[in-house]
UniProtKB/TrEMBL annotation:
Record organism: Microbacterium algihabitans
Record's protein name: DUF559 domain-containing protein
InterPro entries: Restrct_endonuc-II-like (IPR011335)
Amino acid sequence: MADAEQLRSEVSEMGDVRGGVLRTAVDLARPGVRSPRETRLRLLLARNGLPTPEVNADIFDSRGVFVAEIDLAFARWMVAVEDDGRVHAEDERQFARDADRWAAIRAAGWDHVRVLKHHLRDGGAPAVALARDALVRAGWRPGLSAHVC
């Protein structure tokens, strides 16, 4: 596996294609992302003026006990955004564990936003609105630096 600097070096040495698409892709990539859907959601939020979230961030409660790993975390505002593909929806025990996890995230003081498939329709406007509303409730205002987590 190559890190971002190694990829940038390779692009510089070998050349880019179609107006810098490789360089742009390296700049947009984040290490540790677990799925293409998470990446699409992160880029959707960023393209719509929201701050840059931390990917796969750990949440701890007030005693320092691990609560959950979050797809996209806006730690400064304690807003957790997750792509919820509902892959476990048919498994009753897994769904119960998920529901307990969601409650634990909220109990740790975080606003938990679950983005479902239907929120990504129409260009993702509903998903952006959910995340934006949670950030505004937490004190973020449009125009603040988009690169502050």
